[in-house]
Write a structure and sequence with these properties.
alpha/beta; 20% strand; eight-stranded mixed beta sheet
Amino acid sequence: MQASQKQILVPLADGFEEIECISIIDILRRCGVEVLLAGIAGKRAYTGAHGIEIIAPKSLADLHVKELEACDGIALPGGAQGMENLCACTQLKKLLREFSAQGKLLAAICASPIVLDTAGVLSGEFACYPSCQSACSTANNNGARYNQHASVVVQHRQITGAGPASAPFFALEIARYLLQDSAQKDSKAVDSMIAAMEKELLIDKLHATPTIVRH
């Protein structure tokens, strides 16, 4: 990885939502963001909610301190069972708190804002899968509030998404945030790159546009 290249950690657990996980990995890599994919259970293959297997080249428990220090944030795919497995990972919750204290990006989609809440780091306005919001209101006192109309919410150093159909937009907002934070990328250049990526993905052909809230 180049010294100036941005990097995001994506923890992988059985039961992950495939559309969301692949969208995060694929779109961020297309945008030039390095993705560190690490399984939480110490094995190689993880099975998604719909039976698709993904190989994790790294194990979360085996990541070196320098590898974690090189990460600019963390992005959590959703999926009901995947979320429960992420919530049960003590190391991940500790890492979320450390990343939050260090001012790094925290991103979660679908059911996984619950993981942020369980770790005590969910704050401000957020999006999630409908019906999951009730689980995001008791674990901490950070003023978290659900936006039922939003596909994606960018709240300072936190990005949340509603679900599978929001996944490409969620990933693009992560890319926008990370690349604008880079000293070598001005906002106009990043906006142009994101627009070009939206055109490549044919997002500009969609008849309905998602509701993206940026604070």
